[in-house]
Amino acid sequence: MLEYGINRFGSLAALEARLPTPASAEQLIAVTDDRYLSLIALRVFRAGLRHSVVDAKWPSFEEVFWQFDPDKVVLMSAEHIERLMQDTRIIRHLGKLKSVPRNAQMLLDIRKEHGSFGAFLAQWPEQDSIGLWRYLAKQGYQLGGLSAPRFLRMAGKDTFVLSDDVVAALVAQNIVTKRPTSQRDLAAVQEAFNLWQVQSGRPLCQLSMLLALTVNH
Fold it and tell me: Which ranges of the chain have pLDDT less than 50?
């Protein structure tokens, strides 16, 4: 995988400079729950929309959602959410707006068990990334598909992401025959990444990017 990246960027140094670096356990724990809720909401609103449009409006989202304090946001009533649908400063998508208090409840439930959402992320083994995706999709709201892994990447939690290029590379490597959706195929993908991690000593996020670079466009 490495040689494809070097060919794409011209040198090993240039390639290494482009590779993501995951956060340490200490760094994950240091992030407060309100920042994680903000990131989750940002990922939900970015899905299907131009990221630059969402990002430009995010200061207003921070304001209307009380800096994403989960203890406050979880108390938002349906009537309050309906009123936000009239606020032109934000993106008025009812389903996405409703996701914020629901995901706040998820964070509070996790905090009750683990002390903080950051501590929860830090203790989850990267060797079971798909288990973490599944957990977030089930316990959260609008975190299915690629939303959970993309949120984790934004948060710095080490994971691979099944982008179109990564899936194409996995098919070329005979790991799967199509986009993995079944538990069997996802387990095969996890097993392959775990093996590559042991062999290379690289984090999953870097392996994911290097694998994507093997696809010719």
Answer: 5-6
The residues near 64 (Cβ < 8 Å, ≥ 6 apart) are 84, 87, 89, 90
- CA-to-CA distance for 82 and 86, rounded, in angstroms? 7
pLDDT of the residue at 5: 45
Q: Which residues contact 160 (CB under 8 A, 6 or more apart)?
A: 129, 149, 166, 189, 193, 204, 205, 207, 208, 211
> Given phi > 0 = left and psi -120 to 50 = alpha, else beta, which region is 88?
alpha
Angle at the Cα of 150 from the Cα atoms of 145 and 153, rounded to 5 degrees = 150
Q: What would the pLDDT profile of 162-198 be if each residue is shown by its tens digit?
A: 999 999 999 999 999 999 999 999 999 999 999 999 9
CA distance 32 to 16: 30
List of domains in the chain: 25-155 (1.10.340.30), 161-212 (no CATH)
C-alpha 114/C-alpha 120 separation (Å) is: 6
